[in-house]
Amino acid sequence: MSRQAQGWLLVVLGATLLSVSAFSAMYANYVRTGFRPALVATGAVLVALGLATAFRRRPGSHSPRVAWLLAAPVFAIVLVAPPPLGSYAARRHTGAPPPATAYAGPPAADLTLGEFIGRAHGTSLAGRRVRLTGFVVTSGHGWHLTRMRINCCAADALALEVTVNGAPAPPEDSWVRVTGTWVPWKDGIPSDYVPPAIAATEVVRIEPPAEPYEEPT
Asked: pTM of the prediction?
């Protein structure tokens, strides 16, 4: 690979990174939203380095052929970009989420699944109508409203699940907004992990959100 080709490859790689971070929300399928400024800055630096390399006036030189592997991320993003994690990933997650602490703050109508799970270990949800958003994961015993939570990127994602009672299951992997009330565990907070439940009064299909993952607060 010539120096000029290497420079233009860096330009393409940087431009691709900018396209998924600065000009769209595609980056949120892979990493948490707080990484956006770093991704934009990295893309800009790659473009600048690539242009400097491509237009540098020096005698021609060649890099090893392995340098063409720099093109792999471009093809991965443009041609085979995977969608956000869904029901398949949620089913493969068999462990419980980190221990939740009871939330004693002011009541709110719209909650994340993480907030709902945390409040279910206290009493602040009793008698209050809430709205939760997630995708559908079905099982032999009903269905769960699910959302993946990431600490850094999609590779460390874990599934947050809330069992939905009183409503038929929408299509698998469809995104829905569920309105209802918390269903306390019959025998108190279980010692083993059991997803909390919501008695649904309304289930509405929605478009997938631009930011599909929950992030720890």
From this structure: 0.68
